[in-house]
Amino acid sequence: MSTIALVLSLLVGAIHVYILVLEMFLWDTPTGHKAFGLEPSFATATKVLAANQGLYNGFLAAGIGWALWFGDRGGLLFVLGCVAVAGVYGAATASRRILFIQTLPALAAIAAVLAA
Fold it and tell me: What are the start-end ranges of the H helices in the chain?
């Protein structure tokens, strides 16, 4: 695998670790409120749901790490594809910003892995 593919894949994984932290641990804090544009009362009411979302983002990061550790190109492409699809869905249903934060980095990593 090329260095570019590795770095981009690690970047996508790091983004998802960061999202995990925001959703699982910082959702009901000023940092979480600012990151997601939340009203404090809404954040309090949805804290458990957000933690569940965060866990799923953690699984995406873990899948990327697993595939990189074991050199599983097909597995890496699968998880990066899942990230891209989740980003498209998030952009269509929640915020267009997700397209730039999640989908585009995943697509760049996919392109780099395929080119390697």
Answer: 3-24, 30-36, 40-45, 47-70, 73-93, 97-98, 104-115
Three-class SS state of 85: helix
Instruction: Name the DSSP letter for residue 28.
Output: T
pLDDT one-digit tens code per residue, 23-52: 999 999 999 999 999 999 999 999 999 999
Contact 47, 25 (CB under 8 A): no
pTM, to two decimals:
0.93
Roughly how many angstroms between the first and final C-alpha of the chain, as a whole number?
A: 5
Q: What is the pLDDT of residue 1?
A: 83
CB 87 within 8 A of CB 102: yes
Report yes or no: 105 and 113 within 8 Å, Cβ to Cβ.
no
- List the one residue out of 36, 43, 42 whose CA is nearest residue 95: 36
CA 112 to CA 114: how far, in whole Å?
A: 5
